[in-house]
Write a structure and sequence with these properties.
Elements: E1 2-3, H1 4-11, H2 15-23, E2 31-32, E3 38-40, H3 44-56, H4 61-72, H5 78-118, H6 127-131
Antiparallel strand pairs: 1-3, 2-3
Length: 138
């Protein structure tokens, strides 16, 4: 039997993370000693490793729980995993596009500020922000 500290050390997680996974139903509640300490079996180690790896891929705890629930019911969760990864890839692509648009807007604002300064124009506070137009380049 492993205490929360020992199982955390063996899986590279913190004890707080192990308790969080238990509270969210990702791992089964462990047995408790008479003193109330959690005790885990070696069977929890691969599940905790899976959770850690799934989080490294950007999956949320809810998504990981859905995957584990399918597996616990005897179903193959690979279709769900593929769909989730596709959704995450699409989200990343949207964020990249948004960041590229923001970069273009910032470059434009910076160039306008330089041009205004070259013309000797004074700004009330800061030409860069005053001359920036929202939504440009998006």
């Amino acid at each position: 039997m492993l205490t929360v500290g020992r199982i955390a050390a063996r899986t590279g997680l913190s004890p707080k993370a192990v308790r969080l996974y238990e509270a969210n139903g990702l791992i089964d509640p462990p047995e408790r000693t008479a003193a109330g300490y959690r005790t885990y079996t070696d069977e929890a180690i691969p599940v905790l490793g899976f959770i850690r790896q799934a989080q490294a891929l950007g999956l949320s705890l809810k998504e990981i729980k859905d995957i584990l629930d399918l597996q616990r019911r005897g179903e193959q969760p690979c279709g769900l995993v593929t769909d989730l990864l596709d959704q995450h890839l699409a989200d990343i692509d949207r964020r990249i596009a948004d960041l590229q648009a923001l970069r273009t807007t910032l470059q434009h604002a910076r160039a306008q500020a330089d041009q205004a300064a070259d013309r000797g124009e004074q700004a009330l506070v800061c030409r860069i922000i005053e001359s920036a137009t929202s939504g440009e380049g998006t």
